[in-house]
Amino acid sequence: MFQIISKETPAKAITKFVIQAPYVARKHKAGNFVIIRVNDHGERIPLTIVDSDPAAGTITIMVQTIGKTTKLLSTLNEGDYLLDVAGPLGNATPIHSFGTVVCIGGGVGTAEVYPIARALKGAGNKLVTIVGARSRDLVILEDELCGISDEFFVTTDDGSYGMKGLVTGALDDYLKKDTDVKAVYAIGPIIMMKAVSDFTRPKGIKTFVSLNPIMMDGTGMCGACRVTIGGETKFACVDGPEFDGHLVDFDELITRNRTYMDLEKQSLERFDKELVAHHCASHSKEAANA
To answer: What is the pTM for the complete model shown?
Structure first.
């Protein structure tokens, strides 16, 4: 069992956990992920390791509440336990001394960008970071990323903070004044990574994306996370999660990730009803004992 050491809510519907997982913390590298299971009835979900502290034996993850399992996870508190934290899994992100690199984070993908950006800066690169969110209250890790970046930009869909628009707009603006960008790392919603890759392809800028398809075991055995890269089938868990964005079949990935949307919605609706019933029963018991 893996104890939750601390819990914070840095943004709306996003929860940050520090978890006791000494063996994972000892081996973690930028780009690695874990597969967690909340309880013995729960599904296995992949979550990127945001940070680790080998001395303390802890790892940090950030979770956006979207479906049943992430909502269940968000109900846990400091001192509670997770049943499984398996990892570190996946390949470490390729870190090189490129010169100038741009790291782009969209939504909770910003949490995945952070350890990569830090590693790229540590390798001697000039680091430009672009963070995108729907609105100001969903921007995360601004201080941390700003602190390690040579230049830092925020975009919001509604214009409530930073530049109004998409991350590709900010990238376009930056490339107009600095044509020496050698690589782009983009992590976030699939549609965002596709847009960035489509934008950089004709410019010949090497682009890395981190894929998070449907995944079960995380060891390449089940085949659920298969993706098409340059016309070849790859498994995101063991061949990735980072791939050349110019080679990813994003349309196929989007279609595959929507396969179980109806079932996922039904599962979340059942869970919400169970939560309401549990709260009602708890209040009734408290009233009876008053």
So the answer is: 0.87
